[in-house]
Amino acid sequence: MKLEIENLTKKFQDVAAVDGVSCTLTTGVYGLLGVNGAGKTTLMRMLCTLLKPTEGRILWDGKDIFELDGAYRRVLGYLPQDFGFYPDFTVRDYLRYISSIKGLRPVAARQRTALLLQQVGLEKAENKKMKKLSGGMKRRVGIAQAMLNDPRILILDEPTAGLDPNERIRFRNLISELAQDRLVLLSTHIVSDIEYIANEILLMKDGKICIAGTTEELTAGMPEQVWRVSVPRNEAASYTKRYKVSNIKTLHGEAQLRILSVERPADNAVLEEAVLEDVFLHYFGERAGGGEE
Amino acid sequence: MNQKIPYKSMPPKRVRHKKITDRHNGKEQIYYEIRKVLSGTRSRMAFLLLALVLGITLYFALGVEYVNEAGESERGPAAVASLRAAQKAWSGYLEEETIRQVIAENRRINETPEGRSEQIKESNIAYGWKQGIAEIRSLLNCSYAEAFRTYDYYRADSLTEEAAGAFYENRTRLLQEWLADEAGDQYLEAEKVYLIGKYESLETPFYYDYRKGWTQLFTFAPTVVMITMLFLGYLVAGIFSNEFVWRADAVFFASCHGRDRAVAAKVWAGVGIVTAVYWMVMLIYSAAVLGYLGADGWNCPVQTEQGDWKCFYHLTVWQKYVLIAAGGYVGCLFMAGLCMLVSARVRSAVPAVMVPFVLIFLPSFLGNLESAAVNKILGLLPDRLLQVGTALGYFDLYTLGGRVMGAVPILLVLYGIGAAAVLPVVYWCFVRS
Fold it and tell me: Which of A7, A237, B389, B426 gives A56 a disulfide partner, CB atoms 3.0 to 4.6 angstroms apart?
């Protein structure tokens, strides 16, 4: 089971949204991390055959996915960033319809729908109309529809967008549960979404995968070190101008800064262990969290 | 930290289901596609509106009056029964003797004090006596008209029994005079020969019977068909575009059958909706009108009705009904196909829903140009299929490969093929989205 991406490029007029991406994905959870506008959604839409690449190709077990066509989509589950649905369908009808266009037999569709509704905690909402669901419930229906055909490739584009913290955690755990024996590619611009569940993280910037690896590899490979510095509150601003500051915590007139720097930024600086958020800050700097994709 | 808030905890397990079949899903997909269209509140409102319009149309279609012996207008089943009985008394072949009797009866009534009276009440009583021969009297007005395109309501009152023999001859004579004079440059020689041939070969004498049910049915049929088409346009306009409007397209196209069977299901859902709604409306409308007013006269030639006296098609009343129903269906199917095509292409229901409006109402504006060339084109536009009953009365002739024919058969074949051809285009267009 191997998904190979070879020199994949997608241009919209002259702008390359995805620029020469190459990587190989096998079983496991892959976190695609990048700021808004990095090209994550474009890459995922190509992986779902929704967009044709300008250059390059995507191979599933050695065969081009666009040539495999329906046979490839048969093993694919996709939750788009902007998950749309049929507002007047009930949850059950929606899942039954998606089952039918995914090619499930009616009997299998019924069983699968019941199981997934249970798994995502929506058994009691199965007769509710889709338009009446909360944002979190809609997302759960979204993951259920992606799982209907028991896909070998599960692509989740910003699945936690718009969810409250509790829902985010629930969602993360659910994805972890569902991830066994399949390839899961999950895009996000929120580090905590993938920090604990991704086997490998791909950092995407300006349409390119700038670095990939496990959390440990990424933190170990970071050229800068992470420092904790306590300074008077009125000096904090000067540090943020000179260094990449990943966090500022103020306490009793004092500011405690978390700084990324090759050199010790202050005499009282204490070395801290780097986490994925620091890697994110290192690569994306002040752009982190800006712009819409 | 990674706080664990579990869902209903259950071990992740793979369900062993017979994965993916290419069968069994087609009907289910069509069913859900139809549900997508019909489950919305707006669709239900549209159905209610259609029912209301149909109800109003039926109110007028069934509003047949009978003037009783006292000169008062009656409505309702009893009035229909009285009118039916009065006209049934004159049913049979319209031979010279029958025409003579009608002329005589008309004159007899005219010469009564009530017939000569200027008083409304008295006149109404006289009119009441004429109801049995009213339809045949209208045919006399057509037959003995001064010219082909004139109609004088009182022409029958000036006839004498001696004129009865010319009843059928007049029809052809007036046409010949019209073609030789007023319409001389509108038709090719072959077309003139064709028209005269059609007139001469029409079997006479006509069989006449009470046929008010059919007359009313035909009168309001274009309204019913056009309203149904506008309604269908509204329904099918969203079949394709709503995937984009609801942003459901990504999941749809990323599914196994998202670029084949599921798209075909959409097309079939459109065809299914058009077929079911159209025939349901036609059935309700026809059953209500014919059930109330009666289906008598089904085997009469269409020329036994004043409006169709000049019709050159050799058709009986039931054949005309079949043509109206079939033409309406083909027209609706074709226009609905165009709606779906626009919907799939532009990803919006708004321009799609405008398609039937444009196709139905634009020819009305162009018709004011009064150009022979424009009329030739107008005669073959799809709006004519929604009003075949009216189109049968038009003298739209086309010469194809040396063969002259009327517009109606061309329309049926042309748009039958068009409807069948537009559906694969819709499919292809959406698959490539």
Answer: A7
